[in-house]
Design brief:
The protein has about 625 residues and is α/β, with parallel strands linked by helices. It has 19 helices and 25 strands. Bound molecules: 2-deoxy-2-amino glucitol-6-phosphate (AGP).
């Protein structure tokens, strides 16, 4: 959730650290800090709030900023302790010789803290990280070697961490360690970088070493040494980073979210171009490492994910059951891991995650793998922890998504699920039927329909303005669009802080209808198909309680138009494809409302892009 950056080389360290943190700011952002190794000493600067506050602090420290060519930095999303300057990283020990930044959570920090206090350690912050700083410093007292001190200390720590540490008596080196939190070393010429995520270093290097769990390392200007769990020197391969610096620029859009919404037609086009050749040819999904025989043995599918990815999974359930005829459950990873799930070698578990680093989903996947399931991962990050755990890695290739609110990654996940469902059917039944041919045709047409929608956003903008002062919202839909209602409500909630809830339209009269009056707008997703008339009846029920009604629909009969206060038209598509169209309207609506309200669209309060703690 937080972000780490480290640099050692000839550049001004403060410039590299600030640039790196600015690219990580989307991950977590209630405070930030850097430690700069100067001629003799380490100087620490921190600031509460946005990164700009830290930049102002550094602007008044010209001397150290010019002379330092080595440092570590951190951007924090508070877990232990309020988001204050004192709790911001880097943290130090009593003598302040050691400086440390940390991502993750130290689970046994209270026990360790008590022991350290008995040894005389004085704590300044409420963080779990400060415990690690004191612990490593204690070990340094015994070994006088920062790497050994780190290696000894991490053996006493339970929980998740990516650490980056410097010691005043060991200039010219940064020592690192990783367990259950991502950490990479960017490889340069006469300089090296450390980061918790690729965007922090991509403008400087395209080559990196990914640390595995339990590894530690020493990074100097011209060398990188990695050690395994037994503290033996090991060799990690250098990998090529697949991202362009351009992908993390706004390209003229006011917000990353808007840019990412507008990228969705291209995202769809790119994925489909690689996987869907023609209506009569099979889907090209070699990444699925199961053949027809394996698939015939699959008795159940379990989809595990969180948030927006969970909603994509709910759409996936509909299409997998429809096409592959395999019973499919969908569950939030955080729930999945705390019950006795029934999994065996005939279970296909599909983990969905934009970041590939969501802690709950990682734990759930590990659990399913241990029980013998085949694990397929649908992720936007082929370099992530989840990707490395996959038996079948189904990349979604949406490009880096910067805005906290997931948009284009959701579109890419939906398309991957359509392709997977069709491929499962092709492999299982070995014939081509009219339904598959129709869906393939609709997939071909999807990018153009998304473009059509994006080209006519004025109506959505008007509706957004009209409803931006309401404090509550209800989204209703049925069938395959029920997840669209949940996702539309989630988008609105997370970026505008309006209390929006998604309901299955049929459930409205079982309780939520009690909340309806003229102050409660109801947005109904109406798609021609089996549930159209049912949702229309639910809209009548809402109207009878004076609720304001908005329709997001691909068809409305003239006789029904007056039922609604506002109608937003969506290009025509079958029920099956409609979630991929309706969601674009809901994303834009949430965006424009948050924009009218002057909210921090890309970095909403209390949220982080990648939730790496359980
Ligand atoms: C989406 O807008 C949210 N920010 C959030 O719900 C997100 O989808 C969730 O945290 C899961 O993340 P993941 O896809 O990276 O696993």
């Amino acid at each position: 959730m937080c972000g780490i950056i480290g640099y050692i080389g000839d550049k001004k360290a403060s410039d590299v650290l600030i640039s790196g943190l600015s690219h990580l700011e989307y991950r977590g952002y209630d405070s930030s800090g850097v430690a700069l190794f100067g001629e003799k000493d380490i100087e620490i600067y921190k600031a509460q709030g946005k990164l700009i506050n830290l930049i102002h602090v550094l602007n008044s420290k010209k001397e150290i900023c010019t002379s330092s060519h080595m440092g570590i930095g951190h951007i924090r999303w508070a877990t232990h302790g309020m988001p204050t300057e004192i709790n911001a990283h880097p943290h130090t020990c009593n003598c302040e010789n050691l400086t440390l930044v940390h991502n993750g959570i130290i689970e046994n920090y209270q026990e360790l803290k008590q022991e350290l206090q008995m040894l005389g350690c004085k704590f300044k912050s409420q963080t779990d990280t400060e415990v690690a700083a004191h612990l490593i410093a204690q070990e340094y007292g015994k070994t006088q070697d920062l790497l050994k001190a780190m290696q000894n200390a991490v053996k006493k720590i339970q929980g998740a961490f990516a650490f980056c540490a410097m010691h005043k008596h060991e200039p010219n080196k940064i020592v690192i360690a990783k367990r259950n939190a991502p950490l990479i070393v960017g490889v340069g010429i006469g300089e090296n970088f450390i980061a918790s995520d690729v965007p922090a270093i991509i403008e400087y290097t395209k080559k990196a070493i990914y640390l595995s769990d339990y590894q530690t390392g020493v990074v100097t200007k011209n060398d990188i040494k990695i050690y395994d769990k037994e503290d033996k020197l090991t060799a990690n391969k250098i990998e090529f980073l697949p991202y362009e610096a351009l992908a993390i620029s706004k390209m003229g859009y006011k917000h990353f979210m808007l840019k990412e919404i507008y990228e969705q037609s291209d995202v769809a086009r790119n994925i489909l171009a690689q996987k869907l050749v023609s209506q009569n040819e099979n889907i090209k999904l070699d990444e699925l490492k199961l053949d027809g025989n394996n698939i015939k043995k699959i008795t159940r599918v379990q989809i595990i994910a969180c948030g927006t990815s969970l909603h994509a999974g709910m759409v996936g359930k509909y299409i997998i059951e429809k096409f592959a005829k395999i019973p499919t459950d969908v569950e939030a990873s955080s729930e999945y891991i705390y019950r006795d799930t029934i999994v065996d070698e005939n279970t296909l578990v599909i983990g969905i995650s934009q970041s590939g680093e969501t802690a709950d989903t990682i734990t759930a996947i590990k659990q399913a793998k241990e029980q013998g399931a085949h694990v397929a991962i649908i992720t936007n990050r082929v370099d992530s922890t989840m990707a490395r755990l996959a038996d079948s890695l189904l990349p979604v290739n949406a490009g880096i998504e910067v805005s906290v609110a997931a948009t284009k990654s959701y579109m890419a996940q939906l398309i991957s699920l359509y392709l997977l469902a069709i491929r499962l059917r092709e492999l299982k039944f070995d014939f081509k039927d009219i339904e598959i041919i129709k869906l393939k045709q609709e997939l071909f047409e999807l990018p153009t329909k998304i473009e059509e929608l994006l080209g006519h956003s004025e109506k959505i903008q008007k509706v957004a303005k009209k409803y931006s002062s309401y404090k509550n919202f209800i989204f209703i839909a049925r069938g395959i669009n029920f997840p669209s209602a949940l996702e539309g409500a989630l988008k609105l909630k997370e970026i505008s802080y309006i209390n929006a809830t998604g309901y299955s339209a049929g459930e409205l009269k079982h309780g939520p209808i009690a909340m309806l009056d003229e102050n409660m707008p109801v947005l109904a997703i109406l798609n021609t198909g089996v549930v159209y008339d049912k949702v229309l009846s639910n809209c009548e029920e809402a109207r009878a309680r004076q609720a304001k009604l908005i329709a997001v629909t691909n068809y409305i009969a003239p006789k029904d138009e007056n039922l609604f206060d506002d109608v937003i038209m969506v290009p025509f598509g079958s029920d099956l494809i409609s979630p991929a169209l309706n969601i674009v309207v809901l994303q834009l609506l949430a965006y424009f409302i948050a924009e009218y309200l002057g909210k921090d669209v890309d970095q909403p309060r209390n949220l982080a892009k990648s939730v790496t703690v359980e």
